[in-house]
Amino acid sequence: MNRKLMFSRSLSYAAVAMLLGFVVCLTGCSGDDDDDNNGGGSSTSTVNTVPTSDPLSSVVAASFDNPRNTGITAVDNANNIADYVKALVAAYDANALPAGFNFPLANTSDDTFRSIPGLKNSIVARWLDPLGYGPNAPRFGANCDYIAYFGEGWDNDWSDETGIGRAPQWNGSGEAAWIWVNHEYVSGNIATTTSAPDNQWLTLATFMKNEGILTNDVTSNSWAQQDVDKLNYAARRQLGGSWVRIVKDPYSLEWKVDRAAPNVRYDATSNTLARIEGYTPSSVDHDDFGTNLPNGIATGINSDCSGGQSPWGTVVTCEENVQDWFGDLENCWTSNQQFTHTTATDAFAAGKTVSPTYTTDTSTVFGSHSDTRTHHKRDIYGFPVEMDPGEFPSLWYEDSDGRGHRKLGVMGRCRWENVTFATGTDWGLVSGEPIVIYGGDDRRGGRIFKFITSSNYTSGMSRDEVRGLLDSGTLYVAHFDNLDNDTGYTINGGSAPALSGSLATGSGQGTGRWIELSVSSTDIAPNAGQSLAGNGYVTDVGTTGTTVGAALQDNNYNGIGAYTSDNLLLSSLFTACTKIGVKELNRPEDVEWEPHNGILYVAFTNHTRRTALDANGVLYDPATQATTSARDDAVGSIFGLIENGRDPSNTGNFTFWRAWRGTEGTTALEAADPDNLVIDRDGGVWFGTDGNFGRNGTADAFYYLDLTTSGVGRAFRVVATPSDAECTGPCFASDMNTIFASVQHPGEGQTSTWPTERE
C-alpha cells in the first residue's frame, strides 16, 4: 500500500500547487494525511467560509420517533420505520387514521425537507462541510447521490480462517456507522473569460474567494484564464465519493458527522486511482500533470450517480454522465437517438469499422482547461467502479492482496446508473453459485445488463478470493420481447402474473431473454432476418439464424460498422446493443434485487423522445426516424422481473410485468418519475423520484410502494425534498429506524435557500 501511495502522491500535491495555483486540499484526502500540508497557499478557515444562504446539496436523516398514541395497535407498537409505514397503510385503507394525521405526506411543495408524523429530520452533511478538523480537512462533495450504510460491527464475524461472514446489509449498529456517499456533478454554468459562473459554480467560486484561492470578482463577466482554470480544477475535487463516520444522538435522534474519524474523500483528480479490470484503454493514462501511470491505471472517478453495496463490504459506484466532462465516446447519437453517419468522417458510418473518438473533447467542462496535461481519454470513465472504502484514494486494486479500487471493465462502458448483487435471503452470497451483478444504462433507450462470474463462490472464501472472482465472467443484455416499442411500458399480450402475495398489478406479463454480448456469441440476434428495405443502409440484417457474434462483426449489419473485438464492444455498449436490435428501454435508473421472492425490480424514469430502432429492431434511416412518433412515457414505471427457475445465474428466459405506473396530478397517491429503489430487510419496495416537481409541480419525494392490494400498486409518500431538488440515494440504517436521503441540486431551477431557514 505504501508503495502505491507514495507513487501517486509524489506526483500530486506539490505539482498541483505549482500548476494550478490553489489550495489542493479543497476536498482532498483523509484528514490524517500529513501530505495534505504541501502545496501553494494556505487556508485558515474551516467552517465559516461556506455561503450558507446558497442552496446546498445535503444528506438528510429521518429517524423513527413515534411518541403518538394513535389508538391503532399495529401503528403504536411498530418497531421500525418499515413496520410503522406498513401499519399506516393498513390504517389508511381502513379509514382508521386520526383526523388530520398527515399520511401519506401532503403532495405539496415548499423550500423545506418534510416527513410524516413519527419521523424526526436532521441534516447530516452539506456540500463543502469540513469532514475533519484543521485547515486541510477534506470537505463534503457536490450534489450527493447514492448512500451505502455500514453499521459499526457488521463484520465482527469475519476471519481469515472462515472467510467472509455476514453481509453489511441489515447488520451492525443502527446508531453509529460509516456511510459512502456519491457526488455526481456541479449544477449550472462554469465561468468563462467573458461570463460569470452561476448556480453551484458561483457557490464554489464564492467559497474559493472566501478561502483566498480566488482573488478576482467572481460575479464579474471578465475572468482571467488562470482563474477559470482554478475553478475548473476545483470542480474535480467536488466529484467522486465521501467515506464518513456518522453517529446518532440518542436523545435528539439527530445524526452528525464524526469529524474526529479518519474520513476520506475520493475524487476526479489523480489523487484517486483505480485499475481498469477486463478492458484495455485506448492508451496509457497519465496523472493530472502529464506523468504516465502504470498500464491499466486510471485517474479519478467522476459522474458518480447511484451504485451498489457488495456482500463483502465494498461499494460499486457508477460513473454515469461522463460525457459532460471529457466527451461522449458514443457521439454518433443525437439526443433523439438518431444515428448520425451522413459523412465519410463519421466514426460509426455504415460500411466502416467502428472507431470511437477517444481524445478529449475540448468543448466539455474538463476538456476546456487550458493545460492539456489535465485532459484524459474518454474511455477511462463510464464504468461501475468497485471502491474499497477507507483505503487510501491512490490504492489501486491488485490481485495479489485483494485491496484497493478498480473499474469493472469486464462490465463495459455506458451511462451506468447502478448495480445490484443477486444474493440469498440473508443478503449474502450463495455457496456453490457464481456472483451475479445486474446493472442499468440510464439513457433513453438504455438497457439492463447482467454479469455472471466464470467461477463460483464457495463458503469459506476470503475477501481477497471473493474479489478475485470478478476478474472474469460473461456479460449479458436483457431483451424484452413483449414490450411495446411505441411506448416502452405497455406489455403486448400475456396474462396477469400469478405471484404469491399479489406482487403484481395485473397489467399483464411478458417474456424476455438474456443475450450474451461477445463477438463470439452464438445467441441469435433479436433483429436477425428482419427486412431493411427502404432504410437507406443495406437490404437486410442477415438470415433468421444470424448470431450475435456474426452480426457484430458484419461491417454493414443494421447500418452500423463492425465490432472487431470484445474490447471494442465493451467500449460502447449502447451502440453494440442497438446494432443487434435489443429492445430499447425507458431509462432504467435503478435495478434492485429482492432476495425473498427472487425478484429484480427496475425503475424506468421516463422517455419522451424517439427510438433508434423500429419494432423489429431495425435502425431507422435518419430521415425516416425524424418523422416517427416519440415515446409518450412522461411519468415512468416500476417493473418486476423473475428469472426462469428463479435462478439469477440463468442465461435463458425471464418473465416481466409492470408493478406500478406513475401518474400526473396532485392528489394524495400520485407521483411520477421513479428513480432510486430500496428493498427493505423484509422485501418491501421503496423508491425516490426525480422529475415529479417538473411533471406535477409538487416536490420529489421518497415513497413506500404498496403491492399487497390485488391489481393496484400504490405509492405512499413518506418524506419530501425541497422544491426542485431530487430525492435520491435513499437507504435505511441497519435497524430500519432511520431513512437517509440525498437532497440533490436544490434551487437548480427555482429560488431556494435550503437548508437555511427563511427569516
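the 2nd protein, sequnce then structure:
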Amino acid sequence: MRRSPFLFLLLCLLLLAGCAAPPAASTPTPALLPAGPRPTDTPAASASAPVPAPTAVAPPAEDVSRYTAALRPRAATGLRLEGLTRYRLDVTLAPGLAGLIGRAEIRYTNREAVALDVIYLHLYPNLWDGGMTVTDVQVAGRPVTVSYPSGDDVAGVPLDPPLASGATVELALRYAVPVPSGDGIGNYGEFALQAGVLALAHFYPTVAVYDTAWRIETPALQGDVIFHDASLYDVTLIAPANLVVAATGVSLSRAVNGDGTATWRLAGGPMRDFNIVASPDYHTAQAQVDDVMVTGYFRAEDEAGARQALQWAGEALRVYEQEFGPYPYRELDLAATGTAAAGIEYPGLIVLADRLYSDPARQTLFESVTAHEVAHQWWYNVVGNDQVNAPWLDEALAQYSTYLYYRSVYGAAGGAGFLAAMDERWARVDSIERPIGLPVSAYPEGEYSAIVYGRGPLFFVALEQEIGAARMAELLRRHYAETVWGIATPAQFRALAEAVAGQDLGALFKKWVDPS
C-alpha cells in the first residue's frame, strides 16, 4: 500500500524518539569479527548461594557455543571472542515483580596499552535514584572495598596489583535493585513494571568503556545514557513461571521449578547491552525473514498492530541488509511496553510504545519508529559509538536509514515525504544551523530532538548529494564492515567518507557536524 507523502508530515508533530543506490561491487562485507584492540562457565545457582571464587588470570579455553547460539551461521563463522568482556549473571525476581537480586561474575581483559588499577562499573538505575546496591565484591577471589567517585551511579573496583595490558581478571559481586511501578525510571521509563509488563533495561552493573581514560561522566537526563563495549552474556533468570519472556540473545532452556517459578537460561553475544522484557499477558506472533525469526510480544487486543509491526520490521531487515550488510542474529524481538519513548533499541530486541499499536492516527509514527529502531541493530549495536557525546553517529544515521527504508518501500515520493517531516522537525527550532555533532548535554531538550533527529538525517542526505549515491552506499557498507563490534568515532567516519569520496569534505562537516 502506498501512502501520500503528505502523511509523513505527521511525523514532525508526533515522533518522540527512536531512516538506494546499489552498493559498489568492491565494497567489503563484514566478517563480523571484533574490530581489533579497543575501539569457565559455572553452573546456575540461586541468588542466595555464596559467591564462588572467580577463575584466576588466564582462564582455560571455554565452550563458547552458548554465545554463538544467538548468531546466524555466517556471523558465527570465524568469530573471535577473545578479549571481549564476559558477563555471567544470575537474576531472581521477587514475588510480585517488585525487585530483583542478582549475582554477577565479570571476566574483563585489559585491551589498553597501559596497566589499570581500577575497573569502573555503571549502576545505571542510580542515575534516577533507583536504589541499586552492590555488595560482596571480589577480585580474583579476594574481597575488596569499592569506591564511589560521583555519587552512587558509578562504582570503582580496585585492582592490586594493577591489571597489565593483555591480562584478564575475574570480578564477582552481588547486587539488588527495586523495580518501580507506574512511570518507572530511566530517561523514558525503561526500567519499570507498568500494566503488568516488566521492562528491565540496565538491570545489572555494567563495565564502563576505557577510552584513553575511564568514561564515567554523568550523562544527560535525555537521550540514551549508555556507552558500551560489545560483550558476551550468559544469564540465568528465576522468575514466576507464568511470564512470557523476551530478551536479548536466545533462550537456551526453560525449566519449571516446584515453587511456581521457572528458570530460563539466556545467552548471546557479541552485544552492546542485555535487556529482559516480560509479562504474563504477552501473546506472540512470528514472521520468518530468510533465516531470521522475528517475534512480536503484545497484549491480545493489540494483535493487529503487532502483526503490522512484524511486517514493517521484516521489510526494514531486508532493506538494511541490502544497503549495509548482514544482520548478525538468528532472532529479532519486538516487545510492546509502556515506555514514554516511541521506541528504544537493544541488541536483537526493540521495545515499542504500546500506545502506538491500536491508534489509527499514529500508524505513520508507528511505522517510522519501527524502521528507526531496527536500523539501530546496525548503528549502535554492531557498530558502536559514544551515545552520550556523539549521538549523531547512531541516531542521525538511524534516521537516514529510515529514509532509505521509505525510499525503498514507497519509492521516491515516500522518501521525499519522510525528508519533509525531518525538515518540519528541524523547523521546530527555527531551522537554526546548530551542529549535529554536540554531546547530548549541550542541547536543550527541544533542540536535541530537532537537531539530532531532524537536522541530522538531512546531513547524510547532503553528504549523499555531495559524493554521489553509489559512493554513499559504498561508504555505509564499509563503515559497517570496518567497524564491526568496534566503536566508531566522528573523526574515523569523516576520514572514511573522504577516502571513499576521494575529496576533502571539511566544508560539509563544518557546516553540519562540527562544533564551532
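The mean pLDDT is 90. Residues 135 and 174 are 5 Å apart (CA to CA).
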